[in-house]
Every structure is written in C-alpha cells, then in structure tokens.
Write a structure and sequence with these properties.
The protein is α+β, with helices and mostly antiparallel strands. It contains 7 helices and 16 strands. The chain folds into 2 domains: about 90 residues, Thrombin, subunit H; about 170 residues, QueA-like, CATH 3.40.1780.10. The protein is globular and about 60 Å long. The two termini are about 15 Å apart.
C-alpha cells in the first residue's frame, strides 16, 4: 500500500488592507523562495501590484508580518513578498489557520481544537499541502499497525496537494483543461519497494488519487517504470488511460466535473472509456445509501 505523506500547512491567513481598512484572506499556494509566495486572495479582484498588506494573528490582533503585492497572473493569483519575518513558514502556527474546505463551516478566524489533527493524516511528514490527501484520513495508527501485522507492506511517497486539485473541468475537450502543477517525490527506498512488489507479482494499492498521480507521474517520466525522483507533475489522468504501476485504488467520493472523478473513471476500465457508467452507478448507490462525500466522507475500493 502506497501512502502520500505530505503534511497540510496552516495556509489560510487573514489581514487588513491599510489603504482602505478592508479585511481579506489569502490561501498560500506555492513558495517561490523564502517569503515569496503565490497566493489566492479574497477579495482580490481590485488589488494591484504595489499594494501593502498587514496580517492578523489568530486572536485577530495586528501582527508584525506584512506583505506587498508584487504581481498578479492570468488566474488572478497574487505574488506576495512578505516582511516582518525571517521565514513565513515559521510563523504559520501563530497567524495561519487550517485550510479546511469551504463546505466545512467555521466562523471566520476560528477553528475547533480538533481541526489541526483531524485534517491531517497520522503518517504526515513533509509540509507543503494546502489540502489534505483525504483517502489517508481513514487510517489510524492502530490500522497502520494492523496492516503490517497482516503482512501488508507500506511505502510512502510525497505529493503536495494544491487547490487546483478541486478545480472543475470546464473544457469540452479534456486535453484543453489547464491541469494544476504539484510537486512530488519518490524516494529510493519507496521505488525499491514498489519495483520489488511488481516483480514478485504482488498488488500495488494506491491510497488516494494523490498517491496514484505520484506513481503514474514517476513512471511516465521514466519510460513506464517507477524510479526515485523529485519534480513536479501536471499529469491529468482521464479515460482512456493505461496504468503502469497501480493495481488497486482506495479513494473518497469526489465532486462532479472534477479531475479526481475522471481519474477514478479511467481506473475503473483501464485503457478504455467504459469506466464512467460503473463509477456513476457506484455514486448513485452511495447517494441512495446516504454515504458521506468529500473530505471527511466514506471511501470506495476500486479493483
């Protein structure tokens, strides 16, 4: 079983625009270098390069951390240069909130004591995600130990989940969908484990679509075989797709029109477009039986 060990960072920050006194929030997206980040800002349509920003701590009080908008891209994301801190990452526990999905309601600036633990897998190691690899939320330390006791070998890879994971597909032609980029890593030990399992005819089970994307991306960049590597991927898995590494997928129930749902449809019938109907039938059954969907929802095993 292959797990994504990325750790969710406290990526939601709140602040005030000194010029107007207006409140705003940002979601950290990607770090260019220390104190230089691309962010999603709300409201942010009217903000211009050169605009100063001041941030608040978790109690809603002014903090020493400030920023200046340096650039905006075609997607409306802002590039911020932070000051008042040696490294913003070290201040996130003081001024950052757990980036819960919008359908999990919390009053602005608040969270329950359990959010930081519950929106994190028990095996999370490498900080960088702004959304949890949610299939892994089903596993407890006791479950992990029980798997090992039954002879199930576990391997860990890393893919830092970005908000683009949840962006709906709007293009009629799937090849035109602008797939988000995410950074990933496959270590030497993980690559050896996976290659050995395949050589011995054992099944490789991806826990979550993010683990799937790591393994298939690594194989796509290495002639069809997993190898140790660190890089980034824009791989969009949709029907038809020939899978090179993964035999079984454990995944939650996803949003309509999402790239994640299309990945599941592709896996349900590798190499063809026949997987859509069985997957949608499973979703109909889940709705009928009142399964829970999305981050804290139930899971399905696709074999």
């Amino acid at each position: 079983m292959v797990f994504n060990d990325s750790r969710v960072i406290r990526a939601r920050l709140r602040g005030i625009r000194p010029a107007s006194g207006g409140r705003f929030e940002i979601l950290l997206l990607s770090e260019n270098q220390t104190n230089d980040w691309w962010v999603m800002m709300k409201p942010g349509k009217r903000v211009k390069p050169g605009s100063p920003l001041k941030f608040l701590d978790l109690a809603g009080q002014p903090d020493a951390v400030e920023a200046v908008v340096e650039d905006k891209n075609a997607e409306g994301h802002c590039r911020l240069r932070f000051s008042g801190t040696k490294d913003l990452r070290n201040d996130l526990d003081r001024i950052g909130e757990v980036p819960l999905p919008p359908y999990i309601q919390r009053p602005p600036g608040t969270s329950t004591p359990g959010d930081a633990d519950r929106y994190q897998t028990v095996y999370a190691q490498h900080a960088g995600s702004v959304a949890a690899p949610t299939a892994g939320l089903h596993f407890t330390n006791r479950t992990m130990e029980a798997l090992r006791e039954r002879g199930v070998e576990t391997a860990f890879v890393t893919l830092h989940v970005g908000p683009g994971t949840f962006a709906p597909v709007k293009e009629e032609d799937l090849t035109q969908h602008p797939m988000h980029e995410e950074s990933f890593e496959v270590t030497e030990s993980a690559a050896r484990q996976i290659l050995k399992a395949r050589a011995e005819g054992r099944r490789v089970i991806a826990v979550g679509t993010t683990s799937m994307r790591v393994l298939e991306s690594a194989a796509a960049q290495n002639g069809g075989s997993v190898a140790a590597m660190r890089g980034s991927t824009r791989l969009f898995i949709h029907p038809p797709y020939d899978f090179k590494v993964v035999d079984v997928l454990l995944t939650n129930f996803h949003l309509p029109k999402s790239t994640l749902l299309m990945l599941v449809c592709a896996f349900a019938a590798p190499g063809s477009v026949a997987g859509r109907e069985p997957v949608l039938n499973a979703y109909r059954e889940a709705i009928k039986e009142r399964y829970r969907f999305f981050s804290y929802g139930d899971a399905m095993l696709v074999m």
